[in-house]
């Protein structure tokens, strides 16, 4: 556990990114299989807003991890993953 404490902010950024992506995918797939998914609906807008907010939080956590002098590789991976996840929520 002591070794993971060095990566606290990087891991938080990664967890936010991955959990948001999986939750978004699960909701969309569930609605799609039930036949009620419409990409122009209010639910879609809400999912985009929540995902966009999560991407911003993930980005901030990645920047904090680099600012707090965590190992460079972990902070960089977290930051790059959060930047790449913007493609999921950008229209």
What would you say this structure looks like, in words?
The protein is mainly α. Helix content is 76%, strand content 0%. It contains four helices and no strands. Helix 1 packs antiparallel against helix 2 and helix 2 packs antiparallel against helix 3. The protein is elongated and about 45 Å long. It starts with 7 loop residues before the first helix and ends with a helix. The mean pLDDT is 85.
Summarize the structure.
This protein has 91 residues and is mainly alpha-helical. The protein has 4 helices and no strands.
Class per helix and strand makeup = mainly alpha
Question: What does the radius of gyration come to?
Answer: 15 Å
The arrangement of helices and strands along the chain is HHHH
Low-confidence stretches: none
Work out the helicity level: over 70%
- Report the span from N to C terminus: 40 Å
Number of helices: 4
Q: How is the main sheet built?
A: none
Oligomer status: single chain
What fraction of the residues are assigned to beta strands by DSSP?
under 5%
Total strand segments:
0
- Overall shape: elongated
Mean pLDDT: 85
Features:
91 residues; 76% helix; elongated
What topology does this entry show?
Blueprint (H helix, E strand, L loop, with lengths): L7 H26 L8 H26 L4 H13 L1 H4 L2
Helix pairs in contact: 1-2, 1-3, 2-3
